[in-house]
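[Automated response] Your request has been received and processed.

Submitted sequence:
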Amino acid sequence: MPVDLTELRGYISDMYTDVAALPRAGFHFPTGRPLLETLGYDGGRLDRIPTGALESFAGVGYHFGLDPLREGEHVLDIGSGAGTDVFYASLAVGREGSVVGLDMTPAMMEKAERNRAAGDFGNASFVHGFAEELPFDDERFDVVVSNGVINLSPTKERVFEGIRRVLKPGGRLMLSDIVTGVELPASVRDNCTLWAECIGGAQEENRYLRLIEQAGLAVETTVTNARYAFTQESTINAATKWKVHSVSVLARRRG
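Generated structure:
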């Protein structure tokens, strides 16, 4: 039986509430500034971001180098967590640009707002919402980014269709996410706990890229993030068995 969306969101929200409140507690995935530096984020720019954001970072890759943000661009971050990628992007787009972070976990939203108040981020804002139901007007953004989030959605086609809708013509999607090298069996796909651990919802890589294309986005670049790795033995074993890995993708809206 497919996972129940409401139940799944509860599992995920509980997980990331813990990441917000207890970022050093130890999870099945790495967190914090050491992860950011491992993935390739610029240390000088990280120095300008509140430590409260950095400590709860739980992304899986670095996609900002695929087609760097430009001053004045308007950016949406889907699954913005405590705000690290929002603030990182806001420093790139400058005061003439803007960055909106969308997240469904209240604890992360509250922490992101505290982090925003702690720094000079007048071009950044946060909105509560879901990846499958983007609460924004058509063709609002130049760029959509997301880091380790879309694998958690059971209706990825809706996520990518929504991304295309809110992107301006020619706008780009830059994301990092968890995918697999093989199709997962139903016993894994139907397990909410494995979904929350970024395993159960991971799509086979080629299928994942086809979903992006089918939504009206042209995939331009795909990079495997070999430096990313899970941290707990049970998750590492599952990742090895199902060839779970991180990729970064650049795609552009057609038309």
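Summary generated for your ticket: The longest helix spans residues 5-21. The domain at 5-253 is CATH 3.40.50.150 (Rossmann fold).
If you did not submit this request, please reply to this message.
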